[in-house]
Amino acid sequence: MKIEEKGIVAVVRKIDVEIVDDVVDALVEGGIQILEITVDSENSYDTMHRLKKRYQDQVLVGAGTVLDTETAKRAIDANADFIFSPIFNQELIQLTNKYGRISIPGVFTPTEIVQAYSYGADILKVFPATNLGPKYFKDLQGPMGHIPLMPTGGVNLDNMADFIKSGAVAVGIGGALFEKENLDNRNFTKISELAKSYHNKFLEAKS
Fold it and tell me: CB pairs under 8 A, 24+ apart, for 157-164?
């Protein structure tokens, strides 16, 4: 499975451990098959390991908010499929490559994009994306159309298609997927329906 094919990375951050499995089930049922478990979440490594064992090849499970190689290695030991970082760190990319996992470092400028890609990054996480907007991605297509870019930070149902149509290969979506009311009320059906809306919107934007 390639991230570019499925298109949506759900950023699962600090979800109550008692319901995180139910939330993930709802996301998967709604068509989202790429899950980023942020390492600052409670029992994050156990969650990664458990979800990967449960879903096997049906779902990609990775680690998010990774800032150093020690954290990356711990996530890889927990069977993380990819390492997502808000920053660009050469050693982090190289370690991820060494263990055959997908490297997604955070970048902001054209120089960072080219450097990170040259060091072996698979996809570049442009963060925070809303500060730049879809036009930034469109402008980069000329000189850097060969480099896969993924906006993260502020992407929602209203602007997601614009990012995809402007050249983004995928999007990272966090808070917009997890409305507080749905989490508080354990309304997993609503979470699944929202996930399906994002999934359908991605397919529509790609067509």
Answer: 157/197, 157/198, 157/201, 159/130, 159/134, 160/198, 160/201, 160/202, 160/205, 161/201, 161/202, 161/204, 161/205, 162/134, 163/129, 163/134, 163/137, 164/7, 164/202, 164/205, 164/206
Q: pLDDT, tens digit, for every residue of 73-118?
A: 999 999 999 999 999 999 999 999 999 999 999 999 999 999 999 9
The residue range of the domain holding 31 is 3-206
Residue 168 sits in a domain whose CATH number is: 3.20.20.70
Instruction: Please tell me the distance from the alpha carbon of residue 7 to that of residue 168, in angstroms, as a whole number.
Output: 9
C-alpha to C-alpha distance for 155 and 38, rounded to whole angstroms = 17
Domains identified in the chain, total number? 1
Task: State pLDDT tens for residues 131-189.
Answer: 899 999 999 998 999 999 999 999 999 999 999 999 999 999 999 999 999 999 999 99
